[in-house]
Structures are given as C-alpha cells and as structure tokens.
Description:
Elements: E1 11-18, E2 24-31, E3 37-43, E4 50-52, E5 58-60, H1 63-73, H2 81-97, E6 102-104, H3 105-119, H4 121-131, H5 137-148
Parallel strand pairs: 4-6
Antiparallel strand pairs: 1-2, 2-3, 4-5
Amino acid sequence: MKCPFCSSDNTRVIDSRPADDNTSIRRRRMCDDCGKRFTTYEKVETIPLIVIKKDNNREQYDRSKIEGGVLRACHKRPVAAAQITQLVDEVETEIFSKEEKEISSDEIGEIVMDKVKDLDEVAYVRFASVYREFKDVNSFMDELKKILDK
C-alpha cells in the first residue's frame, strides 16, 4: 500500500478490525519513511451486476437508486436512517447471493417491496404506488385491501 502523503511503498499495518458495517476490514497503517498514519478499508470484490430495466436497457447496479426509492417512500415516517441502511444491506445481500451477472429491475423491486412492507405499511403503499405504476384508483385500492386483509 502506498503512503498517501509521501507515496512510499514502505508501509505497515498497525491495527486491523471489522468496520462498522461488518462487511469490510478497517486497517490503520503507518508509513516507515515519513511516520504518518492513515486508514484503509478492505472489502470483498463483488462481480459487477447488470440490471435489466423495464424497457430492456441494461445498466450497472447502483445501490443509491434503491436507497433513494426507500428514502422517498419513508419520507416523514417514523423510520430511522439506520433501518433504511439495514434494509438496503439486506436487499444487496439477497441480490448478490444469487450470484447472477444480470438481474431484472422487477426482481429487485419485489425484494425491496417485501422488505419495506415489514418496515412500514405507509412506506410500502408509497413504494408500491410508484413501483407498480397503478393506472387508476381501483388498482391502488386492491393493493390497500391486501394489506388490510392481513
């Protein structure tokens, strides 16, 4: 590892521990040449995942899109940011455990909807209304009835 201060290759690890998210390792390093300390994070490299959109376009998986959709659905709801982060982590774990190179946006949407339903029912209805693209009030009411009949 090169020192970010003097670009020396002569660095060593002082301390290693799991990072806050438990999916990476935090390493404290010290440069033997300049004596400065810095932190690096080591994470398992995942295969690049391609998402097949509804119009059959393909784009690289982007965690922030799922996070943004869930954040909008949970706007002004009693849901903590940590709960949203955990939900997105769970969705990612489920997606990447399939070990597929491509996944449809529909499949991702269904996984997210299942998780949001357990988190907050109002957020679920908001997410479903955008995701399912309800054409009229009747189709929206059908989804509400499914929740009420639980």
